[in-house]
Amino acid sequence: MHIYSDPASEHHLENIPHIEAPARFPAALAGVQYAQESGTRLEHRTCKPAPRSALEDAHAPSYLDQLEELCASGGGYLDFDTALDQHSWSAVTLASGAAIGAVESALSGTPAFAIVRPPGHHAGRDYGMGFCLINHIAVAAEYARSQGIERVAILDWDVHHGNGTQDIFYYSGDVLYLSAHRSPFYPGTGGAREIGEGRGQGFTVNAPLPARSGEDLYAAVFAGLFIPILREFRPGLILVSAGYDAHRADPLGGMQLEGDSFGRFTAELTAVAREVGAAPLALLLEGGYNLDALTQSVAATINGAEQEAPGWEYAADAGSVEAARRALAPFWHSLR
Ligand SMILES: [Zn+2]
Predict the structure, then answer these.
(1) Distance between CA 136 and CA 96 in Å, rounded?
(2) Do residues 146 and 51 lie in contact, with contact meaning Cβ atoms separated by under 8 Å?
């Protein structure tokens, strides 16, 4: 696996006390180190800032100007919990560059993980929120499309719904967005009936889950919803918004996943990618606020790419999954 990161990730908000803290970056890299020590073959890659044109594929030019100017003038706040400082522009453009690098590796046949901060999945075309400024996974999806990949899937297992990613691709039938998240919870979106509009109808897949959900329910979401839709969609590339705030130790998430749960998610997705002839996975770090849990979960994710898939089967009795299956059944044969 190729690991893309840049030290700029650690300078964003280095002088502002914040739960999305610089210490998350070395904690995630410690997970990379653990995976390497346990025998997984890894290669560290440097990244370049994403070119302006790649950022504009996901964001409005006026919004990018606003962010860049705010950073150049020393920083500020987009909302009460979304801060930026003089280092943020460099951090976010390199983070999007890392996401692009991860796509390049995946399209060349090697799975990749972009270890970056700040996260991106709450940022929409012309807004930032929820610690997110630039939507790196959206930049990565658009980049893959520009490289000739007709169908791209984004799977988001962060505990929060990726409202920004959903918004950016809500009218697209070329980019499939799948999210399992706690609901009701921040940011308030991600209901089972939010399925996309226009050409995008059926291409937004939301699995809202109750607080304290554990791996059993996530396994039902994969087996009863995500995997059958991915098989039918046949993406050329699967991108993962890999947030770790659904870990049981996370101070924000309130879910019950273990570090190893993320390894099983990765193994399952790696198997489906192979089955449908997609490129290997490209993963991107989103949330995750307990540092030890972040380390463990990143290591488990990386190791999971070389482990056997759990092969979960759906037992048709999970209420949260059934609502989503019903909403999406008109668009996917495999759910009928
Ligand atoms: Zn989150």
Answers:
(1) 5
(2) no
Longest CA pairwise span in the chain (Å): 55
Distance from the CA of 48 to the center of ligand 1, in angstroms? 26
Could you report the per-residue pLDDT of 259-288, keeping only the tens digit for each?
999 999 999 999 999 999 999 999 999 999
Helical spans, DSSP H, in the chain:
24-37, 52-56, 61-72, 88-107, 136-146, 163-168, 215-221, 227-233, 259-276, 291-304, 319-328
Q: Cα separation of 315 and 309, whole Å?
A: 18
* Structure confidence by residue, pLDDT tens digits, 53-92: 999 999 999 999 999 999 999 999 999 999 999 999 999 9
What distance in angstroms lies between residue 255's CA and the mean position of ligand 1's atoms? Answer: 11
Smallest CA-to-CA distance from 253 within 301, 297, 283 is with 297
- Are β-strands 237-242 and 204-209 bridged in parallel, bridged antiparallel, or unpaired? unpaired
Terminal C-alpha separation, the chain: 37
Question: Other CB atoms closer than 10 Å to residue 146's CB: what's the count?
Answer: 13
pTM over 0.90: yes
DSSP, collapsed to helix, strand or coil, labels residue 145 as helix
Please say whether the dihedral angle defined by the alpha carbons of residues 156, 158, 161 and 164, taken in this order, is positive or negative: negative
Output the CA 286–ligand 1 centroid distance in Å: 7
Do residues 119 and 287 touch, judged by C-beta distance below 8 A? yes
CA distance 163 to 249: 24
Phi, psi of 12 (to 5 degrees): -60, 120
Q: Which domains does the chain have, with CATH numbers?
A: 2-335 (3.40.800.20)
Gap between the Cα atoms of 25 and 4, Å rounded: 12
Q: Cα of 158 to ligand 1 centre, how many Å?
A: 5
Q: Which residue is catalytic, options 12, 59, 87, 122?
A: 122
Other CB atoms within a 10 A radius of the CB of residue 330 amount to 11
Catalytic residue check, 122 = yes
Q: How far is the CA of 166 from the centre of ligand 1 (A)?
A: 14
With contact defined as beta carbons under 8 Å apart, do 241 and 95 qualify?
Answer: no
